[in-house]
Amino acid sequence: MDTQAVRSIENIVTSVRVLEGGGFPVRRPFPNPELDQVDPFLLLDHLGPTEWGPREAIGAPDHPHRGFETVTYLLAGENEHKDSKGNHGLLNPGDVQWMTAGSGVVHSEMPSPDFFEKGGKMHGFQIWINLPKERKMIPPRYQDTISEKIPEVILDDGKSKIRVIAGEFNGVKAVIETNTPILYLHVMLEPGMGFRQPASATDNIMAYLISGEGVFGEGENTRTAVEGQLVLFAHDGDEVSLRSSQDSSLELLLLGGTPINEPMVRYGPFVMNTKEEIFQAFRDFSK
Ligand code: FE
What we know:
The chain is mainly beta. It has helices at 113-118, 275-285; strands at residues 9-14, 16-20, 24-30, 41-52, 60-65, 68-76, 79-83, 88-91, 96-100, 105-111, 120-130, 141-145, 152-154, 161-166, 168-169, 172-173, 182-189, 194-198, 204-216, 223-226, 229-233, 239-244, 250-257, 265-267, 270-272. The protein has one domain: Jelly Rolls. The strands form five sheets. Strands 1, 13, 14, 17, 18, 19, 20, 21, 22 and 23 form a ten-stranded antiparallel sheet that branches. Strands 2-3-4-11-6-9-12 form a seven-stranded antiparallel sheet. A four-stranded antiparallel sheet has the order 5-10-7-8. Bound molecules: fe (iii) ion. Fe (iii) ion is lined by residues 60, 63, 65, 70, 107, 109.
């Protein structure tokens, strides 16, 4: 096989631990002082896993967003979503909420009342994806997608599994529509399993390790990474290659996208192209 096309590894970034929303713990490979964004991805938060006792769980009360998309993917727990326009949803394990904030929403993302009373394990992800200038002020849109609707591919060993949240894996297409080309795969590999995934050389592509140990790249350009690390692939090929270590399973998110390559100004919950548009967002949401 031709290994020239397999991308090498540009960098491996270790997450920082921070408190988000009302004070729940997240691991954040970016933005942090080492890595600001991976265009068009603006933020990656790994929520928990956290074991909450009864009446302990913390969420994110009312806050606005404008100019981008928030994608929430739950692995454990229950998250309830409400917004200022009366939209309401409940995320259970395996469900995805793809929220295009566009011109703006004010919403809350909280443990469901039932989960709050009982407590339990909360585990998931929130990813922010930028919108190009001409789509920043489009009307808000929700794509709440229950777990059963997320396509899954079982690999040759009959156990390793890939959930196709956005984009395509091995001919299997996601059901969620994206504003720009996005790949979002949840990859679960038994020890010693791996695959290659096509990725246009101009696209940014990365792997965030949820658990286990993985080997990335092929030949001389191989690097190893572990839980909590983000592997950024270089732009020297049109395929990425990854596998679990021989003695470790591997769970990761494989994320890719076409860079927007526009000026980006962010402040808190707003991501626009200019400072003036950020000021305008503050004016609009303080009414
Ligand atoms: Fe939010």
